[in-house]
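Q: What changes when zinc ion is included in the input?
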Amino acid sequence: MVETLFQRDIKIKRVTTLGYSAAQALNDPVRIKILEILSHVQMCAEEITKTLGSSGYKKATTTIRHHLDTLKSAGLIQATKMVEVRGAVMKYYSPTLRAFSYDMPDLEKHVKLVDDTGTKMFKILKSVLEDKKFIAAFVGKDACGQCKGDHYKEYAALEIVSAALAEAMDRKEYAELIIGKEQPKKVAIRQ
Ligand SMILES: [Zn+2]
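A: The predicted holo structure follows.
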């Protein structure tokens, strides 16, 4: 006899296309912080150590070098330039993934915004999945043993949406949305 003691339905709330090595590489708050720092300006290990130190992450440069190796192997950062300073070679890095080192926001109060955005996202996903070039390149490579679905097609579409999101965030107009066009006005603090 089977007695169910606990049961509930869990809804998927987030989607990630991170592969195994990238997920492993992100399994460390310091490495997430490094990606966040590099998203503003390319830096070498020494500069990253200094910047982390001033935001409360006191680490040795050798530790940071090790973190950089891990991020590089996972393809999350790439060397952008090499310079020689008094005989020492400095390597500068830029990220290939945008990471944010915040706690997850509570979206319970924003169900409508999520739902409305979901409607728009569905149209975007549909347009990708029905694109002729997309179908020729990515469809028919997988059939799931459990649902017969083509999850490779699903994965490729998500990678395209993710790359498109990164492309949109790279535009000048996006920076204006985040930083603002004008000089910030004095903010009145209401008591
Ligand atoms: Zn399946």
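Observations recorded in class: Strands lie at 77-85, 88-95.
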